[in-house]
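Bug: token stream looks shifted between consecutive jobs. Job 1:
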Amino acid sequence: MTIALPKLPYEQDALEPHVSARTLSFHYGKHHRGYVDKLNKLIDGTSYESLSLEDIIATARQNGDIDILNNASQVWNHTFLWASMAPSGATQPNGQIKEMIDEAFGDLERFRQSFRKAALSHFGSGWIWLVQDGTSLRIITTGNADSPVGTLLTPLMTLDVWEHAYYLDYQNNRADYTDSFLEQLINWDFVAANIVNVAKHRVA
């Protein structure tokens, strides 16, 4: 099957002033599209051609097909990134996701501090993730194109810290970019929808 470039869930100017239409036109229209186009060329006529995107990632990781893995992961990561943001991102999570944040980090502000620290301490290009690990939440970072896809961790949301994600709007100020994401853009409905309900086993 041909891997398609998914439609953005909002207009390219919908995230302004936090992410400009100009940034999205390059980030989505050039970078994301470029990964899709290159992946389709790489898998054309191969056994990967009939696989879903997630199965391409898992199989390429197992086979050590790094070029396919990198491009497939970047296609998946960017699609997940667009869904992680909303034009009027809620500033407060509610319900189960709030309870899990409070349990894992103490409160929303301490979650933001932990996520911000991870984003600013990550060297070079990569991704910052909120993931579910069993019944708990964790913040992890991955380098370059890597992601939790195909692991025992469930991704709930992500932030792209490759420079192409923010340089036109924030230049080298990753801190302000991260703060805008955390305070103005997170799509908490999407985050909550990704939670996998896992029963807690109590020892009598």
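Job 2, same session, no restart:
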Amino acid sequence: MIRDFLLFLSAVVLPASLAFAGPNITAPKNGATVPKVVHFSATAGSTSCSNGVASMGVYSSPGVLAYVSNGTTLDTDLTYSTGTYDSTVEQWDNCGGASTTHVSITVTEKSGVYVTSPSSGSTVGSSVHFAATATSTCSKGVAAMGIYTAPYQKAYVVSGDSLDTSLTLSPGKYNTTIEEWDKCGGAATAASSITVTGGKTFSEVQANKGWIGYGELPPKYAICTSCGSGVTWSLGHGVTSPALSGNAAKFSIGGKTPYADVLWVNHLIGDGSTEGLPDSSHTLIPTLHNFTYDVYFYGTNLSLSENIELDLGQFFNNQAYLFGLQCQIVNGQVWGVWNNVSNKWVRTSVPCKPKSNSWNHVVLDFERTSGDQLLYKSVTLNGVTTNLNIEYPPISAPGWWGVVVNFQLDGNYKQSPYSVYVDKMNIGYN
């Protein structure tokens, strides 16, 4: 039945049109709270113009061009009034073309720490996602940020004015604090009270040797294990660079058939478990309701990817709960949600604009509700969390028992070969 599931889950690929990457913004981060003097830094994305990019600019708000720089880089400070802004960095090429990248920011006069995850009072699994930004009245800016899981128990520190990481905590109640230290000797904090349940986590799943790859050829996208030259793939383990843990995995796709895909599957619990949890007594899987898909990915040219897909499936009692989200890099740079009943991808308005040549952090939270519905709770990309609250019923899947995790790369209109590095893949369950 797992083969039917794979075919089903990836049966639809949205059509794509030719597109080129917009500017790569390194500052400010999308969704960040920033001081009134906002630092903008960006490099030009790819272009079809053989003469290259001529200039770049910043629109502080729609229609308001605040800054222009010649060439393929941009680095400047702009003064904003307090408020929330939908700013845009645009690049203009020497052939009359242009492309943009949007960045939403909130401007404040106050120093402080602004936490987007976890929300105070929430109940979370053992892998707790922390995301926050900080501002300071210090003219030299913020030096570092840290997490205290209890008074005087510093669990994590990172340089700069933003923080995005996951920590594994034991069950219990926590009064956590995120602190920022500025370069003038000052500091500010924000507290969150959370309850950690007795959930468990599969850590460093990208290093698990149990991944199985399948090709998918259009137009039917039936899976194949030997697909000729139409679609090719490889998976390399133990990658030390680029890597965060020193043990990344390299997923690669190629071939000659446009829009062909590659799906990698790992059986975590139940039938075919690669983690030593076969659940032979059929007592564990029915108790699981909450899942977190926490992963970092890196690509040198992500514009070559039609979609990057992240899936998780739960199967028991002849029912299938198929959670799937795909970053539609070509088709609108938004997240798509899998509707397992209608057998199609549903486009959302939630931005998905991962950066090339940089590690992108994704956290997906799913729930099988007490009424046995699939609930897409939230998606976080690079520290920006958006609540989805999208719900679907399960579908029939006789005979299969297990929990599986998928990672998929979709080919573009030329089936351009590309690779995506994956690290720190943690799957939480409870």
